[in-house]
Structure formats: C-alpha cells, structure tokens
Design brief:
Elements lengths: L2 H40 L4 H40 L2
Subcellular location: Cell membrane
Keywords: Cell membrane, Cell projection, Cilium, Flagellum, Membrane, Transmembrane, Transmembrane helix
Organism: Palleronia aestuarii
C-alpha cells in the first residue's frame, strides 16, 4: 500500500465519519440551544432539563438515520476497504 492510497483511504474514512455523525450532532446542537434559551428565559436551572431532552432527541434521530448510517458504512467497507485488504 502506497502513501497515496493510505491517505486517500484515510480521507474518505474521515469524510464518511463526518457525514454519518452530522445529523446527530446537528440535533444535539439545536436541542441544546432550545433548552438553554428556555432556561435563560424562565430562570429554571435544573440539570436534568439539559440532559433528558437532548438525549431523547439524539436517540430519536439515531433511530431515524440508522439505516442511512449502516448503508453508508457498509458500502464504504465493501467498495474501498475490502478490496484493499484482498490486495486488489
């Protein structure tokens, strides 16, 4: 394996990681901003108020995008990684 192939595979793997994690991170950001705004407006400083809605939102988005994540990772491994391991 040459350096070019190694770095290209690494770049593609990092891009796949960014694409698959973007929906969850975006929802966590939006949920955190909404809860933070709610806390600032109502002066309610409960620790579970920040944790529970964000956790529910993350689990919901993960459940909805699980198929997309699985398909993306599976196609990456079958088209890029497995041929490299097999020597093709």
């Amino acid at each position: 394996m040459t350096e070019i192939v190694f770095y290209d595979t690494l770049r593609q793997g990092l891009w796949i990681a960014v694409i698959t994690s973007t929906p969850i991170l975006a929802v966590a950001l939006v949920a955190g901003l909404v809860v933070g705004l709610f806390q600032a407006l109502t002066s309610v400083q409960e620790m579970t108020l920040t944790f529970v809605p964000k956790l529910i939102a993350i689990v919901g988005v993960f459940w909805m995008t699980m198929g997309f994540m699985t398909d993306t990772l599976t196609s990456y491994f079958t088209t890029e990684i497995v041929p490299l391991i097999a020597g093709g």
